Amino acid sequence: MLNQNQTPLLNALKDNAARPHAPFYTPGHKRGEGISQPLADLLGKAVFRADLTELADLDNLFAPQGVIQQAQQLAAEAFGASQTWFLVNGSTCGIEAAILATCGTGDKIILPRNVHSSAIAGLILSGAIPIFLNPEYDSVLDIAHSITPNAVESALQQHPDAKAVLTVYPTYYGVCGNLSAIASITHQYNIPLLVDEAHGAHFAFHPELPTPALAAGADLTVQSIHKVLGAMTQASMLHIQGNRIDSDRISKALQLLQSTSPSYLLLASLDAARQQMALQGKILMSRTLQLAEEARTRISEIPGLSVLKMPRLGASLGFLALDKTRLTVTVSGLGLTGFEADEILDEKFAVTAEFASLQHLTLIISLGNTSADIEQLVQGFTTLAKEYRRTNLTVKSHLWQDLFTTQCHALCCSPREAFFAVSEILPLIETNKHICAEIVCPYPPGIPVLMPGEVITKSVLDYLQQIQAKGGFISGCNDTTLKTLKVVK
Asked: I need a labelling partner for 409 at 20 to 30 A (CA). Which of 21, 172, 204, 373 fits?
């Protein structure tokens, strides 16, 4: 057992920030002396004294032998891994590295169609061929959930030469599939299970939260420590266990994907967040769960609103748990879209959600929230329901279903081939039946509706146009106004 009280990287950074010396190394602001005054006024100068480079005492992220290595070992123990890597380019680079470390050009990888755009980037970088699975779909709420063990087993029977399985656990809505069963099926083929656990970094620290991916049998998991715990934005971790993944390939892939000038502020925040959870995690998560339950109970009592609950999902579909700190509120009963409700809550009541969709608002309740936050949230929804209610909203409820049914069988070439192919830009209305050459996704949550290599269909165009008309934001593509799309020429 390691001493989880320690913060070796944070301590080293603190010591070096306080050491008087003449700095003749990067960064150019020289410990804050050259920083612009407006930025210094906003952040204070102390943070810039700690904005240091790879000094001798601070170790090297790509060949750690000192304090970074020690901090990563402490994190591995705290999160239940055999080895952990700190990430300064977010979970995005972790997902990309996981695919690069397990798949090469032409190799097959099984994954859900509702993966994050980082997985599509991993396909483009690696040249891997995706075998997409339809996620289970709730036609009433228009929400795509997780893939099931049966779907994975069927895919592996059809593609026994697949090199890996990747799944999302939990989804952006907090839904957790039967990961233990998926791991068992995947391991029967002696291939690794990769998990995008970006929103599940807190699972290891309270028994009322879903089972952590590693405990459920995953070989590799990527966690956004900044999303639900106390690290700074961009600070994430990649964990592995077992012998199905070559750790050296992970290290080499991360050298390609991460900055050679990593921020020690981000790295130190990972060290501090790990210590905080290792020592106080259960207490912090107990309080967070209490706040979430209060919000869920009170909001569900407001006429016209409902919240996503586990019984709605059904264990028969292979869903075992719902992250209770994730709150999805259906607002369509008020005659509002999620986008409209989001704008009203933000502008009128200073309540800002994580993301909006056509019928819902999804909120993250974490260790940083307070009782005052919950009160403001409930009061915002209460007033929204009383003062902004309109006639019932009519939303085409099978949009996602149409999308996945058509899209999962429409890949004409690998994402890499389409991404690097000769392309042209066409007006949106002329792109039907063309092969897409870019990533197109409403954001957040960053789930691509179109990716390079897929045939553009009318249902996809209708979906994107409705999202945009209702106030959604389209990202990833060259023209975010969605008047044009890039297609393979």
From this structure: 172
Nearest to 472 by CA among 450, 441, 440, 442: 442
The secondary structure of residue 303, as a DSSP letter, is T
Pairing of strands 236-240, 83-87: antiparallel
Nearest CA among 153, 150, 119, 148 for reference residue 136: 148
Burial 253-284 (b: 16+ CB within 10 A, else e): bbeebbeeebbbbbbbbbbbbbbbbbeebeeb
Of 477, 463, 457, nearest to 410 by C-alpha is: 457
- What are the residues whose beta carbons fall under 8 Å from the beta carbon of 245, sequence distance 6 or more? 101, 102, 192, 219, 220
Residue 58 is given by DSSP the state G
Spell out the per-residue pLDDT of the chain, length 489, in tens. Answer: 999 999 999 999 999 999 999 999 999 999 999 999 999 999 999 999 999 999 999 999 999 999 999 999 999 999 999 999 999 999 999 999 999 999 999 999 999 988 999 999 999 999 999 999 988 877 778 788 889 999 999 999 999 999 999 999 999 999 999 999 999 999 999 999 999 999 999 999 999 999 999 999 999 999 999 999 999 999 999 999 999 999 999 999 999 999 999 999 999 999 999 999 999 999 999 999 999 999 999 999 999 999 998 755 555 556 679 999 999 999 999 999 999 999 999 999 999 999 998 899 999 999 999 999 999 999 999 999 999 998 766 555 455 555 555 554 578 899 999 999 999 999 999 999 999 999 998 765 667 889 999 999 888 888 888 878 877 778 888 898 889 999 999
Residues 6+ apart with CB under 8 A from 49: 17, 18, 31, 32
What are 103's two structure tokens?
A: 């798949």
- CB-count exposure of residue 481 (10 Å: 0-12, 13-18, 19+): exposed
322 touches 175 (CB < 8 A):
yes
Per DSSP bridges, beta strands 108-112 and 164-168 are parallel
- To the question of pTM greater than 0.85 for the whole model, the response is yes
* Dist CA 419 CA 352 (whole Å): 35
CA 248/CA 288 separation, integer angstroms: 37
DSSP-assigned letter for residue 51: -
Q: Is the dihedral of CA 255, 259, 262, 263 positive or negative?
A: negative
Whether residue 443 contacts residue 476, with contact meaning beta carbons closer than 8 Å, is answered with yes
**CA distances (Å), 71 to each of 15, 61, 201, in order?**
16, 11, 17
